[in-house]
Design goal:
The protein is mainly alpha-helical and about 160 residues long. The chain has one domain. The protein is built from 6 helices and no strands. Helix 4 crosses helix 5 (about 90-110). The longest helix is centred in the C-terminal third of the chain and has 34 residues, at about 115-150. It is globular and about 55 Å long. The two termini are about 30 Å apart.
């Protein structure tokens, strides 16, 4: 039974990290296209939130920082994906991937602003990212539960979240 559990865990780590590692490689290999895509998304959001002057100002402020944001996103995907895949600092890896995925999900899949068939696609992509976020949250708490139980920790089975 331990062998099956170990194999499933390796496979799960691979599945969870694959999308992020592939995304990081895509960013690295297509840097300019990714940068252009991010700028277009920010411009789209400016049109979506035309009713909010503060949102418009915020989007205008971060647009010149797209290169740095892309660098951070790629770093989070690459390092977080490797940490999860290898089981090294798994919580830190999951946390980095969460920091990446939350804003990306909101910015890149705003189905609530879209009409027609594209809305269904964006809603599906949004829900897919929510499922991945759920997996990452489970990674964050799973290790804490096991360590706490092994040490005779808290009654609720949770230990303090440490990286």
């Amino acid at each position: 039974m331990k062998m099956i559990r170990a194999c499933v865990e390796i496979l799960a780590r691979f599945f969870i990290s694959a999308v992020f590692l592939a995304g990081a490689m895509k960013n690295i290999l297509n840097w300019h296209e990714t940068e252009t895509s991010m700028i277009n998304v920010l411009f789209d959001w400016q049109s979506y939130v035309c009713f909010s002057e503060s949102a418009q100002k915020f989007l205008s402020l971060i647009t010149p920082w797209v290169s740095i944001l892309e660098l951070l996103a790629t770093f989070f995907m690459l390092v977080g994906g490797l940490f999860v895949l290898l089981g090294i600092k798994e919580k830190l890896g999951a946390f980095l991937l969460l920091l990446f995925l939350i804003p990306v999900t909101i910015l890149y899949h705003p189905f609530w602003f879209i009409e027609g068939p594209a809305r269904d696609l964006q809603a599906a992509m949004f829900l897919k990212n929510l499922a991945i976020l759920g997996c990452l949250l489970l990674l964050l708490i799973r290790e804490g539960q096991q360590k706490s139980k092994d040490r005779g920790g808290n009654e609720d089975g949770f230990s303090t979240l440490r990286f």
